[in-house]
Each structure stands twice: as structure tokens, then as C-alpha cells.
Amino acid sequence: MSRRALFGYLLLNVFVTFTVMVGVLLVNKARLSITPTPIRNLLRVIITATPDPNYTPPVVYVVVTATPVSGVAVQPTPAEGAPRSAQSAPTLDPALLPAGLETAVSAPSTCPTYTLVAGDTAGAIAQRYGVPLVDLMRANNLREADLTRLQIGQVFVIPIGGCGLAAATPTAAATPSATPLPPPTATDIPTLAADQLKVEITQIISPGDITQEGVEIRNISGGVIQIGGWKLTDGKGNTYTFPEYQMFEGRRVVVYTRSGGNTPLALFWGLPSAIWGDPKQVAVILDAEGKVQARYSRR
Question: What is the per-residue DSSP string for 83-127?
Fold first, then answer.
């Protein structure tokens, strides 16, 4: 075979090979264009009723007001965006309170109010505004048991000058005097005569421990009594004189030996050390006339 014929044969082979390769590529490209590519590892999205943990539900306040006929009525809160009166204050929803707990009524516009904060007690609020505790309780429709279940944010009516006391006479303003005067008593709560007053010493708590030692006293008279000026003695020369203090029926109060701030449920003697460590001691309570009203012995 001549050199020229060989060169022509090789050139023909290259052309055929190139043509076949181009044809194969075009066929594969066409096949891929009509064959869908399978989708793998699909992400499944499931919609459930689980609430958004970052969602904060709107707070709805219910104002409780007193009515002469039905006693308590619930008024709706103004619509969203409506201006809120400067005199109004949100109170607790009665449905959220424990059973049997009465909610303080909203104050008339002429009565001052106070909103409870952490650490407040009814006795401290009454002392702060110079009103008797019994008047504060009547103005807010509170019972003895309610004093230990007050709620932060609860609004108190302050019965200054008898405000909010429909059935009671206005409280007289305190007159400066060297001799402390007993606070006025509401007209609808009777005070028993001296010969009917009855209290009992129920126990001596943690005798010998100055941090906890105290004498527990209970009113068993069946009414409200004033024990201001009464005395508690241990028979060894230690005598505690009660401040102006009103005890309701069934109320218990503890006279702690140590120092502290008086509350409606606790009084403080102010002694530096314990005094009831001797089991032979006798605790005696004397009224303002010196008559024995209670006696207690641990033996």
C-alpha cells in the first residue's frame, strides 16, 4: 500500500470515530433530558397543634365591684386600644383565687387605695395609714382567715375618715396625748364586758431557744376583745405589757421572747435571751385590772 493511500485510510478512521462519539453523546443527552432525576432525602414537614413556646398570651383583667343587691358583680375590661381611667386599677380575677377567698372590692372614686406588694400585711397597712385594722377589714370585706391569704396586686380601700364604711361611724382622727388611747371600734363588732373576757395560753413554743421561743395565746371568748395594757409574766420578774391590740374570735397570737416588728399574728417581747427554759415556770396573763385571765404550766 502506498504512503498516500495509508494516510487517507487513517484520516477516514479518525472521521468515523469522531462521528460515532458525537452521535453517542447526543443520544445520551437526549435520554437524560426526558428521564426525571429521582429526588432523595425529602424533608417532611408535619403541622401540629403545638403552641409556639415564645408566644405570650394577652393578659385580661377583671375588675370586681360591689353592688348593693347582688354583692359582687364582674365588669368587663375596656376594649383594646381604649384609654384606661387613671383611677382604675386591675384586681384579681375571682375565678383564679382559692375557694372561699373573698376579693377586695373596688374603691369608690373618693376613697384612697393601696396596692399590695411583696411583704405587706394588713396590720402594717392599717398602721401606716393610721386606721384601725377592723375598719380596714370591713372596708375590704375581709375575714380573719383572709389575712393570711392576701395576694400581691390586691387593691385595698383605705377607710380614712370612715370612707368605704357604709355601716360604721367615721373613724376619729388621733389626738396627740402622753397616754396611748385605744383605737375606735366599729359599731357592728361588739366588745365583751370585762367579766366575759376569756383567753387561753395554748403552748410555749421552743422553750430555751431565743430564736423561736414564744407563748401562743388564743381568744376563746366568742367575740372581739381588746388586750391593750394586759400583762404576761413568767413569775420571775419578767413582765410583758401588751400594746393596743385587738383579738378577733378564735384568733391566735404568739408573743415571741426576742426582738422584732409586731404583726397581726406575732408580738415581740424584746428580751436578749430565752426565759421559758425551766419546765416548772408558770405563764400568767393579767388583764388591765390585774385579774388573772389565763394560766399555763408545762408540768
Answer: PPPTT------GGGSPTTPPPPPPPPTTS-EEE--TT--HHHHHH
Tell me the pLDDT tens digit for each residue of 123-177: 889 888 888 888 888 888 888 888 888 888 888 888 887 787 764 444 444 444 4
pLDDT in tens, 10-63: 888 888 898 988 888 888 887 776 655 555 666 666 665 555 666 666 654 444
CATH no. of 63-75+87-162: 3.10.350.10
User: 283 or 11: whose pLDDT is higher?
Assistant: 283
pLDDT in tens, 76-129: 444 444 444 333 334 445 455 555 444 444 444 468 889 989 888 888 898 888
Which residues make Cβ contacts (< 8 Å) with residue 218, sequence separation at least 6? Answer: 199, 200, 202, 250, 251, 252
Helix or strand (DSSP H, E) at 297: strand 292-297
**Grid coordinates given for 200:** 387561753
Q: What is the CATH number of domain 194-297?
A: 2.60.40.1260
C-alpha cell at 205: 413554743
The three state secondary structure string of 234-280 is CCCCCEEECCCCEECCCCEEEEECCCCCCECCEEECCCCCCCCCCCC
Taking the C-alpha atoms of residue 227 and residue 212, their distance in angstroms, rounded to an integer, is 23
Residue the block writes with cell 389626738:
175
**Contact indicator for 236, 281 with CB cutoff of 8 Å:** yes
- Return the SS3 of 226: strand
Tell me how far apart the alpha carbons of residues 116 and 151 are, in angstroms, rounded to a whole number.
7
Q: And the C-alpha cell for 48?
A: 401540629
Whether 163 contacts 111, CB under 8 Å: yes
For strand 252-256 and strand 266-268, is the pairing parallel, antiparallel, or unpaired? parallel
Q: Would you state the cell numbers that stand for residue 151, as one nine-digit string?
A: 395576694
- Of 215, 198, 189, nearest to 275 (Cα)? 215
